[in-house]
Structure formats: structure tokens, C-alpha cells
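About this split. The held-out portion is used to measure sequence recovery: a designer receives only the C-alpha cells and must propose an amino acid at every position. Recovery is the fraction of positions where the proposal matches the reference. Here is one held-out target exactly as it appears in the evaluation file.
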């Protein structure tokens, strides 16, 4: 074998070993699990959602979810203090949160954790897990449009 041929074959061998190692590493799944609730179930910071107050949230206790934000009317009138906006996904494992008007609390449909409209925890999940307080978003009213920004 000529010297040049030997060097070329050596280079190809090293390249093959490196490529194999890279494919092997890339094909493995990570040992660390993906987070099940990125951002604690809240929407990404800066996200804005809006509600048309001429057609939605007409009565005290009404609620609606728009863009991952749960809006609740807590008082009459269209002042910003008449509404609460919070995350619509549970901080525990992302279950859907709903406002239970008759009990005046927010409840998760997955493991039944409960929260006040100010985001405090009333009851932990029924699966033995632990949840955290809800994010409360600032609301503004402009004309007949209610908006919240995460
Ligand atoms: S996902 Fe809401 S309590 Fe588990």
C-alpha cells in the first residue's frame, strides 16, 4: 500500500467511527424527562388574549377561556376590577381549569385541585401530587374589549 493510500484509508476509518458515534448519540432519548408543564401551565410571557364584552362574560360568575387564559367576571360593570384572568392549564399536570360559579372556586378537571380566584390553592390534586398557585394576569378594559397579558 502506498503511503497516500494508507493515509486516505486511515482518514475514512476515523470519519466512519466519528459518524457512527454521532448517530448513536443522536438516536438515544434523553434520560431526563420532558417537562410536563412548561411555564407552570401558564401561557408564555407577553401573550395577550381578548374577550368581546358585548357577547361574553355578561353576568357575574361567567367565564371563558381564550388563548390559554381563563377569564372570569367577578363583579358587575366593565371596570378592570370586575374581572380576573388566570392560566387555563393546571400547574400540576396541565389539566383544564374551570370556574365553578356555585362554589366560587377554580377547579382542575384532571385531578380536582381547587384554587381561589386570586390563585391561592384550596385543595391539592387527588392523585397525591402537589400543585402550585395560579398565575394571575393583569387585565385591562378598552371600550368593550377585555384583555389580559401574561
Ligand atoms: S392536572 Fe390539575 S390537579 Fe392534576
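Reference sequence for scoring:
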Amino acid at each position: 500500500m502506498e503511503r497516500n493510500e494508507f493515509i486516505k484509508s486511515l482518514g475514512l476509518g476515523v470519519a466512519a467511527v466519528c459518524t457512527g458515534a454521532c448517530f448513536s448519540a443522536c438516536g438515544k432519548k434523553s434520560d431526563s424527562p420532558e417537562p410536563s408543564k412548561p411555564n407552570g401551565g401558564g401561557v408564555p410571557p407577553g401573550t395577550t388574549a381578548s374577550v368581546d364584552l358585548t357577547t361574553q362574560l355578561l353576568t357575574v360568575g361567567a367565564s371563558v377561556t381564550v388563548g390559554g387564559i381563563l377569564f372570569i367576571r367577578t363583579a358587575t360593570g366593565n371596570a378592570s376590577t370586575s374581572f380576573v384572568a388566570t392560566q387555563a392549564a393546571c400547574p400540576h399536570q396541565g389539566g383544564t381549569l374551570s370556574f365553578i360559579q356555585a362554589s366560587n372556586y377554580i377547579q382542575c378537571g384532571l385531578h380536582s385541585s381547587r384554587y381561589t380566584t386570586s390563585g391561592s390553592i384550596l385543595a391539592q390534586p387527588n392523585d397525591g401530587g402537589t400543585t402550585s398557585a395560579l398565575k394571575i394576569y393583569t387585565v385591562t378594559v378598552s371600550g368593550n374589549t377585555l384583555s389580559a397579558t401574561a
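Annotator remark: Residues 12-35 have pLDDT under 50 and may be disordered.
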